[in-house]
Design brief:
By secondary structure, the protein is mainly beta. Helix content is 10%, strand content 53%. A hairpin with a 7-residue loop joins strand 1 (19-27) and strand 2 (35-44). The N and C termini lie far apart (55 Å).
Length: 148
């Protein structure tokens, strides 16, 4: 019986083993700032899609894309980001990223922020992956969200 119990404890970890997250971070904020961004690298062993992101520190969380449109850099929400098997997808300033809006508190350098990633497989089954993202200084890799 102890062996069976050990297998059951490992089962949830195995479900998430197909997606690895590295270098997860969130930009620090100043008092009263309502918006920040979350960034990370995602690698999947099978085709998956990031379809939703949640965190208790923000009232609204959206997946965004920054891209050139007729010579102008534009940012827009997207319904998800494909994670092709065997490739690393980077959520970064100036590309795909996660917007944290309606922040509930200041995000201070040195803290970590809990983030839940909702992933969907080709079979449309969803699973969640919990991530701790380090809060990095305000001046980390500039991005174009000052107007939000």
């Amino acid at each position: 019986m102890p062996f069976a119990a050990a297998i059951l404890l490992l089962a949830p970890a195995c479900a998430h083993a197909q997606v690895r997250v590295s270098d997860a971070w969130v930009r620090a904020t100043v008092p009263q700032q309502q918006v920040s961004g979350a960034f990370m690298q995602l690698s999947s062993s099978k085709d998956m899609r990031l379809v939703e992101v949640r965190t208790p520190v923000a009232g609204v969380v959206e997946i965004h894309e920054m891209a050139m449109d007729k010579g102008i850099m534009r940012m827009r929400p997207v319904p998800g980001v494909d994670l092709p098997a065997g490739r690393t997808v980077e959520l970064k300033p100036g590309g795909y990223h996660v917007m944290l809006m309606d922040l509930k508190r200041q995000l201070k350098e040195g803290e970590s922020v809990p983030i839940t990633l909702v992933l969907e497989g080709k079979d449309k089954k969803r699973e969640t992956l919990e991530v701790q993202a380090a809060v990095r200084p305000l001046n980390t890799a500039a991005h174009g969200h000052q107007g939000h």
